[in-house]
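User: Can you help me understand a structure? I only have the sequence.
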Amino acid sequence: MADIISVASFRELFTQDEEFAVIDPREASSFAGGHLLAASNLPLDSLQDRIKLAVPRLQTLCILCDDGGGEAERAAQVLTSLGYQNVLILQAGVAGWEAAGGTVFTGNSVPGKAFGEYVENSCNTPAMTAAELHDRQRRREPPLLIDSRTAEEHESYCIPGAVLCPGAELIYRVLPIINADTEIVVHCGGRTRSIIGAQTLIDAGCNKVYALENGTMAWQFEGLELETGNRKVLPEPDRKSLILTRAITDRLAERWHIDRLDSIAAHEQRSRYLIDVRGREEYESGHIPGSINVPGGHLLQNIDRYLVVRNSIVVLIDSDWVRAVTTAVWLRRIGWRRVYAYTIDAGCERLETGPGEIVAATEDRDLDPNDYTDQDALMRDNRAYLEWEIELINKLSGEPAAPYMDI
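Assistant: Let's start by predicting it. Here is the structure, written out as tokens:
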């Protein structure tokens, strides 16, 4: 049986620089019912298949946490059999954490969504209601409406007239086509990527930018129809425009201390994630061996899914410097210390083609209106979801896994 770590010793880890992973091996539904903010959900039935990508080094400290059902002990046996050398079980699990004054969170993708609420509160990110957007769309010069989700989500459903530009691509694609008077509204399915997307453009120097308050959910609350099958995408910048956006990106990289890597060499002393933040087609046409494809906005919203090892190294990869830095800035702001950008030079290095390692689908299908036949049920679920997400900011006080709160 694995050794036990006390709640006090566990808390102390967040003040140190040692890398560690907090793994909750319960089923997804149990995890969503109540878990630690620091935990990543790797259920027992998929643990053996997923652990190598999630925790690359066998020396990494792995802390297992359950709710007393024995999953932590069984997971410890799996990890030990695979050669992991430093496996501990959190004393009394979720109940022990809560009894010691820790907060338990429900739902999924909580770290990214809670951070989105923090950004809105701390930056006072401007918002526009669905009713206001609908009114402005009927004007002679309507706002530029951007869907900051993935291509799959955009095509599944979006607000009519929206054009796709995933979160990491906003500076890359938007800045070359706007002027000082362009009004921009960023939407997603709910809140997080609208907020982060709008603030990204504001920080890059755009003036009239708004997050659509409560995203497509708010649009439906107004009794308005969503659009399906939309494949409109903002164009890629030309070479001249890219010079401008790189200059802006350079200033952001300097402000947030994002360093450029000249090469990708193995790092034996610390876990390292190689994440290509470009679109799927670009990635499959040629990528760094060993890298995985996670578009930047999706990564930020689902940070607990992809960056399981805390205090690890994260290398964000693109072909232009802009998209990697756009994502890296937000990882720095959420508290990640070792974040680097790497730019592919397709003519000078060996690249792989094809899908590479598949970690998880990039679609977020929670509360997808296409899955509902009962509109009233969808509206009830949407309202409950928004109440849950907005309340997250009030649960972060004293939470060691949220260093941006200055606890």
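Now, to help you interpret it: The chain is about 40% helix and 15% strand. The longest strand covers residues 313-318. Let me know which part you'd like to focus on.
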